[in-house]
Each structure stands twice: as C-alpha cells, then as structure tokens.
Amino acid sequence: MDTSYPREDYLSTPAHKRESSPTTHVSPPPRDHLIWSIFNTIYMNFCCLGFVALAFSVKARDRKVSGDVEAARHFSSKARCYNALATAGSVVLPLLVAALVITGVIHLSKLAHESVGFFTYQFSGSDDEDK
Questions:
Q1: CB 76 within 8 A of CB 53
Q2: What family does the Swiss-Prot or TrEMBL record give for this protein (predicted)?
C-alpha cells in the first residue's frame, strides 16, 4: 500500500476547488528590502540614507501585511532606491578617497625626487665656485 500521497484528502475536496483558474495571474508580493536596509543602517550609513531606506522598508512591510499592494510596491521601490544610493555612496567614496591619496603620494614622491635633484645641483654649483 502506497502511503506517500494522501489520496483521501484529494478525493474529499470538491472538484471545483481542485481546479485552478487559468486566466488569473497572481503577481508575487513586493519585496520590502528590510535586511538590506538594516545592513545599510548599521554598517554603511552614508548621509543617513540607510535609515531612510529602513523607514521605507518598514512602511512597505506594513502595507504588504495590510493588503495594500500598490502602496507596498511604491514604498519598496523607494527603499530599493535609497539602499542602492547608500551602498554606492559607502563603497564609492572610500575608493575615491583611496585613489586620491595614492595619486597624491605618487605626485609628492615625484616632486620630492625633482626637488632633491634641484637642491643637489644648487649645492654642487656653489661648491665649484668656492674652489
């Protein structure tokens, strides 16, 4: 006897409840991006954008629970936008600062190397004139 499939439950449900309607397409509920917002709020809070994203994420979750799908999609879109801005700002700005520091160090080292050559020329020129 095969007990892997509950045949009694299937047979006890009426046939009209077993059929699915082929024309209705249920869209998935919108994502609220809450975990991403919490991460941006705690670790990468650039100009408080992570906190703003967290507020919109909570609003999106509240609207999704209450059944207002359109408002949930609207707040979810705003939360995604602020999360992307916070993440981009928190990743791009340190990279930009590092690039500026590296180019500044390279420029200063070249300038120092040229200055050493200039000063040694001045000192060696004055030593030759004394003799």
A1: no
A2: Belongs to the CD225/Dispanin family.
State the residue range of the domain holding 112: 90-126
What is the Cβ-side half-sphere exposure of residue 67, based on CA atoms within 13 angstroms?
Answer: 0
Number of domains in the chain: 1
Long-range contacts of 66-69 (CB under 8 A, 24+ apart): 69/27, 69/29, 69/30
6, 24, 34, 61, 78 from 65: Cα distances, Å: 32, 22, 14, 6, 18
pLDDT digits (tens, 9 = 90+) for 68-123: 999 999 999 999 999 999 999 888 888 999 999 999 999 999 988 888 776 676 55
The phi-psi region of residue 6 (left if phi > 0; otherwise alpha if psi is between -120 and 50; otherwise beta) is: beta
Residue 99 located in a structural domain = yes
Question: Amino acid identity, residue 54?
Answer: L
pTM > 0.70: yes or no: no
